[in-house]
Amino acid sequence: MKRLFCFLALMVAVILAGCGKPDFSDAEKKTIASLALSRLPPLKPDTTNRFADVPAAAALGSTLFFDLGMSRDGTVSCSTCHKIDRQFQDDLPQAVGVGHTNRRTMPLAGVARDPWFFWDGRRDSLWAQALTPLENPLEQAGNRAAYAHYIKARFGERYERIFGPLPDFSGMPLNASPLGTDAEKAAWNAMSGPQRDAINGVFANIGKAIAAFERSIEPAPTRFDRFALDLATGAEPKGDAVFTREEILGLKLFIGKANCVTCHDGPRFTDNSFHNTGVPPVADLPPDRGRIDAVHQVEADPFNCFGAYRDGDASACGELRFMVKDAPQLIRAYKTPSLRGAATRPPYMHAGQFSSLDEVVAHYAKAAPSVEGTSEVHPLELSDRERGALVAFLKTLSE
Amino acid sequence: MRSVRQSVVCRRGTGLASLWRYLLAGLGLAALLVGILAVVYLTAPRSAQPAGPDVSRTKKTDNGLYMASFVPERGVVRQGELESWLLTLKTKTGASVERAAIAISGGMPQHNHGLPTSPQVTDYLGEGRYRIEGLKFTMSGWWQLRFAISSGAGSDTVLFNVVL
């Protein structure tokens, strides 16, 4: 009888040996490993901004980022919408600066790794991006001449230590910009070429300082990363690195049947590209066609990579050089956002259309057609349990 | 490992009837079989990949005018990065095709979208080799790249599949 018991024990042990850990195929393991934060490569230098990794520039940039003086009426800074204690976003469906905008504030973790900026990619560098809200009448609502004068009066010495001597502003208007009010445009047009260039140069440096600061904002490891690391090394997960059955199911769906990983790929869970996913427009907001209308804006931007204010050579301008300019796929296409931290920052989509991850998952499962252009999303059969599992997995990217 | 430890604990019994021995041996073999099947089942790839598209890097153009080969210049494909690839064109007789006009298009047939970038021929490197810059595979999956080639030998097209 003893031997019988031994064999039975052996049999049970052999069967159990196959059931202990969450089982993933080799292909799944490879995909999971590709999503781990440990796979994030070091941040590349930005040759278009020679101050990108200058600490004094980053320090000035951080001052400017939080400075309410960087707006028309002294009430709005970058940090008004990019709140430091809220993943550098504001929890609102659409951002509110001096006025009410038509887009959701994007979080900033890892932003320096983006090839395109804003939901529609209407800017092609972090420093060119930082300049745009400064002159948007709904955001900081200032004008570049006023910013240049303000920098000289308030931070002149710090500025000159980093960027060299400020230009002579005598005879230049206090308020002028090609994008401002009629009076500001008239003042801009009355300036000489070298005067405009001097103002633009200081303005570009403001963006370069803010970008230098923003380069330090990087994503932090999450429960998912600890889980992925243990899975890759074969270590027994401990503490919060242990995934529940529901989270494992969600992860399997995310990289499998639900096809989320097709666009939300890599350690930042984004392909850095633009897609029409049939997200509905918001009533009462101005018409919004996404990427298709941004192409001309980035081409016309004097601060783009081909412009006079870029440092380094044009070899850094590949994204702009090989940009798709006119294709049906650009209609109502918006940038794939990173999913890191997404669970704790509703609402979702480019104008805050969805208030919960449940709504987001339901949208992708239903795959409603786009109001304009063609959605890339295909309908998906997901049970309630599977939808819940996907949301449970997404939460592991915020813990 | 667990099973090995288990069997080490089991010492040889004494004085069991031979019937019992056969029965036990049978049980042991059955257990072993179940174990092996479990291991095979659990380690096998979950879903066998359906037969994918033809991903050969060298092929005849659609009307047979050229032999075309299309390879990443750095040897490996890196997802999400701007890359340059080399398109090499030879005639049927193996002569290098020079001064060809090449138009590039493509996309992902399963996602209703074209290429995320506009790749272009940026250089002729001699011996029928053309450098194509600005390719970017932003997503995993099945990509198609179409080349419309025109030279003194005539006009032809070729399609390459790239699966990431």
Offer a concise description of the structure.
Chain A is mainly alpha-helical. Chain A has helices spanning 2-17, 26-35, 55-65, 78-81, 126-135, 144-163, 182-190, 193-214, 223-233, 245-255, 291-300, 318-321, 357-366, 384-395, and strands at 274-275, 334-335. The radius of gyration of chain A is 25 Å and the shape is globular.
Q: What does the model show?
A:
The complex is a heterodimer of chains A (399) and B (164). Chain A has 399 residues and is an all-alpha fold. Chain A folds into 2 domains: 21-40 and 220-286 and 331-395, Cytochrome Bc1 Complex, Chain D, domain 2 (Orthogonal Bundle); 55-214, Cytochrome Bc1 Complex, Chain D, domain 2, CATH 1.10.760.10. Chain A has 14 helices and 2 strands; from the N terminus they run ααααααααααβααβαα. Chain A has helices spanning 2-17, 26-35, 55-65, 78-81, 126-135, 144-163, 182-190, 193-214, 223-233, 245-255, 291-300, 318-321, 357-366, 384-395; strands at 274-275, 334-335. In chain A, strands 1-2 form a two-stranded antiparallel sheet. By secondary structure, chain B is an alpha+beta fold. Chain B is built from 2 helices and 9 strands, in the order ααβββββββββ. In chain B, the strands form 2 sheets. Chain B has a 5-stranded antiparallel sheet, with no helix packed on it. A 4-stranded antiparallel sheet of chain B has the order 5-4-8-9, with no helix packed on it. Classes of the chains: A mainly alpha (399), B alpha+beta (164).
